[in-house]
Design a protein that fits this description.
This protein has about 190 residues and is an alpha+beta fold. The chain has four helices and twelve strands; from the N terminus they run βββββαβαββββββαα. It has a six-stranded antiparallel beta sheet with strand order 1-2-5-4-3-6. β4 and β5 form a beta hairpin. The chain starts with a strand and ends in a 7-residue tail after the last helix.
Length: about 190
Amino acid sequence: MKTQGRHGEVAAEVHSDVPDRFVPGMKVLALSTTGDERRELEVDELWPHKGLLVLKFVGVDSMTEAEALIGAELQLPLSQRAELETGWTYVSDLVGCTVFDHGREIGRIEDVQFGAGEAPLLIVVNGGTKFDVPFAEAYLDAVNARARQVCMNLPQGMLEINAPMTEEEKGLQRAQGSTKEKRKRTPSRSLR
């Protein structure tokens, strides 16, 4: 979220496919950027503006008070969740799930990122290794939120694309980089 206006309004991106999800009088939770503090807020007014939703909260009446909400993530209490159609999943239900690729465990979902492409990216962690996995219907086999599992059928090699380089690969890259530098510095000669 970011401040919008002089009377405590904030502008927020909406990641909900539920039409008219936000209404005056509803309660939301603002999760701080550090993730360690939740503040309950009541929506006083709202309106769309340039692809964002401008929200005015009860008791947030100045730009200074709104600045405390910059970067916060708005969440709905579980009791206010809309019932989803079959095949749809809340992002908050994905975080913490174990991801399987063709039946093989590849790690747990640490985060879900939007805006990198057509599909959201699942940030999957296994030990010290992170994978960016597109949460695309074409790769999705099943989501079992109760069992905390996401089963996928990823194209061969997709996980290797985002895997960290081995020490051998890093050394090879450094060697190739220094060769390119030498080529750049060598004066070229014209043929006659």
